[in-house]
Amino acid sequence: MIRMIVRRLLIGLFVMWGAASVIFIIVRAAPGDPVTVFLGPDASREQIDRLTAALGLDRPLYEQYVSYLGDVLRLDFGESYRLGRPAMEAVLERLPATIDLTLTATAIAVIAGLALGLLAGRRPGGAVDRVVSAATIALQSFPTFWVGIMLVLTFALGLRLLPSAGVGTPAHLVLPAVTLALPFTAIVARLTRSSITEAMSEPYVQTARSKGLTERQVLLGHALRNSLIPVVTIVGLQMGALMGGAVIVENVFAWPGLGSLVVGAVANRDYAVVQAVTLLIAGIVMVLNLAADVLYTRLDPRIRTEARS
Amino acid sequence: MTHFRKSTATAAVAVLLLTACSTTTGGTAGGGTAGRDLTAAGTYPIESLDPHGAQGATTGTQLAAQAIFSRLVRPDATGQVTGDLAEKWEPGATAAQWNFHLRSGATFSDGKPVTSADVVASFERMQKLDGPNAANFPDYEMTAPSADQVTLTAPAPDASIPRKLGLFYVIPAGVTAEDTAFFERPVGSGPFTVNRFAPSEVLAMSANSKHWAGAPQLDRLEIRTIPDLSARLTALRTGEVDVVWGIPDDQLPVLRGTSGVTVETVPSTAVFTMWFNSSSPALKSPKVRRALWQAVDFATIIKQLYPETGALADGLVAPPVLGYAKQEPVGYDPQAAKAALREAGFESGEKLRLQFSDAEFRPFVQAVASGLAESGVQVDVLEKEKAVFTKDLLALNWDINFQQLATPTYDAASNLGRLYPCAAGRTGYCNKELDALLAKAGASADEAERAELYGQAGQIIWRDAVGMYPMTVKLAYAWGKKVTEFTPDPSGLPDFSRVKLTAK
Q: Which domain holds residue B226?
């Protein structure tokens, strides 16, 4: 297990280097000049030259790249001229809100998705299965921003049960988290349903039944645990995607996470912030994937055995 | 297996509890604001409270700064310059030097008096940070001849200094250019003091009881960032916020039909401006440029797209701006336009590049392109990202450039005087006579003379169709029933120190 983790961490270092290099190239290849955007169209030539030099943008690209990699190794992600402070400081300030949103959405999606998948997979082709299948297709098809607006109109404006936007109380988290969770719920539900359906026809389930266990014990104690393996994998992968989806949801619900920071940074060519966010998210996704792999081995003894051999 | 189920359930509950608890970061709960508290949701985020830094010229930072800090002078809701920290001011022998006399009794929120040393240190800090606001004062110098007087000296006569100083805010001396921590809980001499600031989320403030003009009527003011328009308007309708602005026409009927919501529009300083690139061979001739202007039915476009927030423009700058002069409207005449284009030898096969930056203006720009197409003028509509737009704008990499140009100083010097001299190189147009008029207007300390000179300059720009000036913009504000006195501001920077509420 430890060897596997060390190996994955070493691979992760290469992935991080790749992510750092790709984002360095992409932000500089994008058209537009950060200095002109920062200073506005009325800046004098001298002002533009001074800021270009201050940001190190007057140096050859390879020099900028080497210096950037050196800084990253020292965990120095540069200064955001636009925000007037270290880029990573601004990013870390917003990260907790995005993590709150993403974790809550994941928890909702996993609990609701597993429950729906179990209900549907217990009797494939039955009425419940058909309703759940239709609902999950619908949930995956609706655009997130539309779902968000509909939820606001219903629960904030219509029923006045929940706040429409912003932060402050746990109630503020409900609508954005549910909006973000819905398509993910559908994915988990469909995966769980097909895994459960498959598991229920496996010989070990027949054995469990022949031992006299109730259908509930068979389902929860045997079929579900084996069905969790692909679900765990998809949860690990989807959490990275959720952080991406959070950009739209944060905008609709004025949720002060990384979303608006990234949008502003990209629009203003704030290289330092874009690079810091990208590396942080790459790191988080890497850790999540590693955690999914570790959990995977915990759930499936065959993988543990393979890893040992 | 039982152990496994218990662990899973415990983990799920823990995640939910942790996430629910960790979001309690302050701010107001849904369900409205109470007592003498007011919540506003502006159109732009507040990303920094430093009025001298890179964000100093943004609408968000300006809105925050005018609540927290004081200026020497500031524009009132009609665009007139009024004293803030300065009680009176006058030019020296030429308009290159201006003296400002500070009022006595003005203090910072920590009780320390505001002195000329604070004003000079603030000006020097702004210059040192070299941000967008510093660009208004290149090589200007501020000195303090006495504790209650400051003198600003420009390299050349500059009559617009008092109005340009509307962008300059005073902070206590001793705050260095690098000091960002100060702006987490800044000390100012404005009508409000900061309780909490979370960039792009919320600025929560309390009334400053030490303000020289007396404490505001509000106890607390919260400015929230709600980027999505529909979310902003929903928050107004649910009572979560009390004031919103920058509302487009299509939303106004819904708000007007909402009980307890008041909607008002106010003429702003902004004008839809569509420059022609006069250095482009196809657009060199004023006859061609004027014919293109005639080819578009702006009156109908405005009526359709901006029935309440737009009006056909009759000047280069908006009426509240010093230097506004009424011009002869350019009427829609497609036949005359076609004839003039033929006569001028305009090649109808050549495509003109029409650039703009903000998706909000897409319908208007497309309608203009469609109007031009009806007269046989082909147009490539190019919607560009801000960064690309600005770069191309300065490089004259366009044939027609659309911008909503505001004049936040309420002075034509920062519009006509800044954008139209040959040296500015912003439109490819150069006219020595115009340069002389603009220079003279910029140097005169006599406001009547300046208005007259800018009027003459405007006539030349309008006659030569340096651009099309189709629409003056009104800003729409809406507020809830607890607000009894509110003055909509033409620049989108409402003064909350004068707001009155019903609730006690």
A: 1-45+191-261+480-504
